[in-house]
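Recall from the previous chapter that SMILES is a line notation for molecules. Here it describes pyridoxal-5'-phosphate.
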Amino acid sequence: MASVAPDHSPYPQLAEAVGTPAYVLDPAAIDAAADSATQAFGEHWIRSYSLKANPLPEVVSRLHARGWGANVVSLGEWEAARRAGVPNAETTMEGIGKTDAELRAAIAAARDGDPLRWVSLETLDEARRFAQLCGPVPLDVLLRINPAVRPETHAGLAVGSAESKFGLRGAELRTLLDTDPFAGTGIRVRGVHVHVGSQLGEVTAWRNGAHAALEALDLVRTKHSGADTVDFGGGFPVLGTPSGPGPSAADFAAVLTEHELPARCAIEPGRALVAEAGALLASVLHVRDLGGTQQVVLDTGMTELIRPALYGARHPVHALTAPDAPVLPTELHGPVCESADRIGHYELPALHRGDLVLIGMAGAYSSALETTYNGRPHAPKVSLDPETGPRVVQDRERLAALRF
Ligand SMILES: Cc1ncc(COP(=O)(O)O)c(C=O)c1O
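With both inputs in hand, we obtain:
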């Protein structure tokens, strides 16, 4: 765990100052994760942070200061990248469902002489539409392939499997190359994009996905000789797998040394850069004895952390009150009116109303997926800034600002 746990000292004061639930971010942990991925692949790699993991401007600008561009999937994420100071030249756009408005915005930026680094296209249909809208405007694209691999992860995160909705199938890619919807436009095919899945438990699917991407690049080059780029996606895991600690960024990078690589290579991780840096500070609301098991309801749940309900994700939980007391079987629940709002089964000391708990590994796909269901305002975000001390970077949403 990062320094957000189990050093309990800042938390009681924090809870007092901003209330709970509250997200807490450790910037030093972001720096460490970013630098270790940079070291694994090398400074010459294009490194894009996938904003979907956590688009908080403080997070994005921190990563940008360490050489990371932005990978965005919508106009909203593009706006978040801009607010964080990431220029278009270091921003890539991808996404399975780009609207005409999004495609047009990318074209308008290029027309204004401020193009995105590239736009990644998902289907033949999308490629045709983009070409139609783009006309003579010069703009780089990557072709996202579906590598038809078996990612070693939760089914909901296995985007590189043959049956997923993501990426061009082999026949689709060949049709695209044969029919060339980009002919007569300013679109330049710069290469291939692949992303096999998130929270990968092994390197095998990544290796097979990389192999498929490099083969696809060879094919693309038969029609577009200037294609010189492969974006290998993200997917590096955090926390151990049942069989071990899980591969590191360096293990994924090592797989690629088996291959001759093109002039430009890119990665676009999200989770591995920010998950460990975040935690969710919560209070116990009430406890019920279920015959030896304590059933605990916290003041945080699926509205702030949907991952356990969405795909059975497991987060470390630390009791901040009497952390060294004997532990009890504990069923931990959230306060939302859904049975799915369950954080999981843990062994924790006897808890009482008002006790504080810290849910770790909540920096990725946590606040990014926050909702206001049940009329619950967005929680505050606090940075444990080593220079200034704890700093609220986003206030708790005011009741008056809630949208119903
Ligand atoms: C295309 C693409 N790239 C990158 C990512 C980031 O994945 P991760 O956070 O697992 O690194 C995702 C996640 O869904 C994705 O779909």
